[in-house]
Amino acid sequence: MVNLGPVLPRSANALRSSPASCAAVPGPATTATRTPVAVITGASSGIGEATARRLAREPGVQLVLVARREDRLRELAAELGVPTTYVAVDVTGPDAPARILEHVGEHHDRLDLLVNNAGAAWRATFADGGYANVRRTMELNFDAVVRLTEALLPLLRASAPSAIVNVSSTAGRVARAGSGAYSASKFALAGWTDSLYAEEQPHGVHVGLVLPGFVQTEGFPAAELTGRRLTGWMVSSPDVAAEAIFEAGIGRRAERYAPRPYGLIAVLRVLAPGLLRRVGRGTAAAVLTTKTGADAADAAPPGGSSDIAERS
Q: Which of 110, 111, 124, 283 could make an SS bond with 155 (beta carbons 3.0 to 4.6 A apart)?
């Protein structure tokens, strides 16, 4: 059950028709007095989609889905069976936070949960990718999260008790060659989350952190791992990450690894940093630096798919 405190009745215009990029799909009527509202970014596939489906199982929930691919958002919203609206927008866009805030204000009178899940990775060494690769990765995985949280924080405070869940990564605790830009963005997100938790706890806004390991999604196919008997066991499903997000948000847990055994890697980072560095420069580490959906999009020929799957 959702446990985010008392909630005011849903705004009368919550299911009002809206432009194509902010369409509303009504769900079944409910007589529940609690109508918690959740915003999920990167909701068109992978962990974001799984999170939407997980939250849709909670009584009275209303969802706002955010991603770039409107067709996928429309299909998902129609399937969920709960009052759901969506905003088709690139979260890195200069007007994205304002558009999402406007949409939430138009359809709801509160916000109980913000799930910052959208993200991507482009694999490259620093010598090859340079600052440009770090910049574009930080822009999506960190800057966009900070900007959206800033825009929605006043509403989250006004709706307290409420929650924010930032989706980092196990790579936000342990880095590997070829994925430094991604790790930098996720390390930054983890550190900022800890600080934000301390700042917002007095205001009734819980801030949780989720750190997925290898989760097979459109953005992270993990084909290099799933195709091998010795490494296939390391890859989990988006549903496992979605449950961790639920626990960090609705359950108000401070931190969750997905799957939980990945937390042992963080322990090794503290207890045996030299060992992890040695492993990180070996052959095994090269196998673990898998190709991503963003890499495939960059390699697509002219006219091919250039859409980066929203995921963590």
A: 111
